Amino acid sequence: MANILMVVSAADSLTMKDGSEHPTGYWAEELAESHRVLREAGHTVRIATPGGVKPTVDQVSLAPESAGSPEKAAAFTQYISFIDAELSSPLVLADADISEYDAVVMPGGHGPMADLAFDKDMGRLLTEADAAGKIIAPFCHGPAGLLAAESEDGTFVFAGRKLTVFTDEEELNGGTGENTPWFVEDVLRTKGAEIETGPAWTSYVVRDRNLISGQNPQSSEDVAKAVISALAE
After folding, report:
1. Entry pTM
2. What pLDDT band is residue 181 in, cutting at 50, 70 and 90?
3. Hey, how many other C-beta atoms are within 10 angstroms of the C-beta on 149?
4. Which residue of 3, 38, 157, 185 is surrounded by the most CB atoms within 10 Å?
5. Residue range 166-182: mean pLDDT, rounded
6. How many whole angstroms separate alpha carbon 162 and alpha carbon 176?
7. Where does the DJ-1/PfpI domain start and stop, copy by copy (predicted)?
8. Which domains does the chain have, with CATH numbers?
């Protein structure tokens, strides 16, 4: 069975375009579903955050209307409680050694826009993981973390790679809207990534060699399943 590093944002707020602070963190469905599917497949999942800080769940993601139903909201809440010991003592991201892992999984929520996108340790791990052909699987806003990966000459490591991400359409019509400080899809395109998108709020997964990405929270389970399939190859 594989060892999987799940990198989760440690941010609990995002500075908006107007300068206000928007409460954020990780999105419940994304962390809970991907962690559950990977664990139930027999893989070991180690959670890491910048500074080893216990990650904050975005409370909006636990509301029934955001989770999809009262039953789903309850299930996500229960699973997060079930793995509370792991969430309470995550690995310090700076201490993570990519040679110890077979894959890096990166759930979203708006948190990665506040920290992982600019984190040098995130960039180092992704650069080393990609060079070694390790599976890299960000989804929803998780691909913001890819932006931290730059080569020594400043080139974006994932330029020219096909991937998907929470779309501008979804951000404007169900995310943080016009007050969003920057749009992950736009910035990734500008950096040279080849963005592919599916219908809004529908599971959509893109694989480009070792890079597996998902568009939105609805893609969480399918990304985890794609990681499992890739690990079995």
Report:
1. 0.98
2. very high
3. 22
4. 38
5. 97
6. 25
7. 30-229
8. 3-232 (3.40.50.880)
